[in-house]
Amino acid sequence: MQADTETVAAAAMSEELTPPLNQRRVAIGGLDTFLYEAGTGKPVLLLHGASIAVDAWLTWFRCFPPLAKSRRVISYDQPCFGRTAIPADGGYLDREKRADHAQAVLDYLNLSDVTLIGHSEGGFIATRLAIQNPGRVKKLIIVTSGGTSPRLNDARDAAWMAASAETYDYAGRSVDEDTYVRSEGHLRTKQDTAFETILRQNFRHASESGSTDCLLRQAASSSGNAGYENYTAVQERLIFPFLPRLTCPTLLVWAGSDATVPVARGLALADLIPNSEMHIFPRAGHWVMHEEAVGFNRLLDSWI
């Protein structure tokens, strides 16, 4: 019986780790861009966040199968991440520039009536696209995104800045593969073999492709909390002034146990967005789509 159970578990994980059959490289915005696609129907575009070894597949591999049952689900590796090219000058593309590239992806795929789902800094990109494309974006989902939500302008800001400085300590965490994997917040609290397998593969690829060096150069100019003092300036300039005109229904999905993006910041963002609602998974950390996979996918499926 134990052998049968182990066989079933191994088969389930093997299936879970299998990317969609439709994968392709296309030239978008002057960069070789790696796309994933599955299913048919109304389009859903998934946008990942930013960190060493993060890409579209690590972020969304548990979301593709349930969402693709009745929809066309698309994701892609953003510039400097995964299998998408690094710019020729080796420079890192920040949120604003990656949002410009995302607009080129939207145009290349000719997407309309699309639902955008963005996690972490991908939430900034999704929101920026929704603001810029009011006739094309049907719904917007922002998932536990410090790159989109406001600062609190009180003593609580110091706590999330310190947590962010630790989480995104690229130089300290990336000294070797095991150190990076052991320091990943999701794996500190629970065993997730599928997630760890992809994370390890991605870490090696990022080291070989040069994307790790790209992020290290970007982070070298700041350290500790100082690097986050002006972090929200981008959304203050490019997001907040335009939220009153955002007409599409918006769902905020928040992790209740993510010190880098406390619930208070999510609530402050919800207050700025008309026609918005918020769902909180109280025990989840930053990788809420993995830590609460069943509930997360059920919520997305019903809300979309």
- Could you tell me the strand content as a percent range? 15-25%
Strand order of the largest sheet: 1-2-4-3-5-6-7-8
Mean pLDDT across all residues, rounded? Answer: 92
Which regions have little confidence, pLDDT < 50, spanning 5+ residues? Answer: 4-12
Main structural class: alpha/beta
For the largest beta-sheet, the strand count, sense and barrel status come to:
8 strands, mixed
Helix content: 40-55%
Annotation, overall tally of beta strands: 8
- So what's the overall shape? globular
Q: How many whole angstroms does the radius of gyration measure? A: 18 Å
SSE order in H/E notation? Answer: HEEEHHEHEHEHHHHHHHEHEHH
The span between the termini is 40 Å
Counting DSSP H or I runs of 4 or more residues, the number of helices is 15
Task: Please outline the helices and strands.
Layout: H1 2-16, E1 22-28, E2 31-38, E3 43-47, H2 56-60, H3 64-67, E4 72-76, H4 95-108, E5 114-119, H5 121-132, E6 137-143, H6 156-167, H7 170-173, H8 177-182, H9 185-189, H10 193-209, H11 211-219, H12 233-238, E7 250-255, H13 263-272, E8 276-281, H14 288-291, H15 293-303
Parallel strand pairs: 3-4, 3-5, 5-6, 6-7, 7-8
Antiparallel strand pairs: 1-2, 2-4
Helix pairs in contact: 4-5
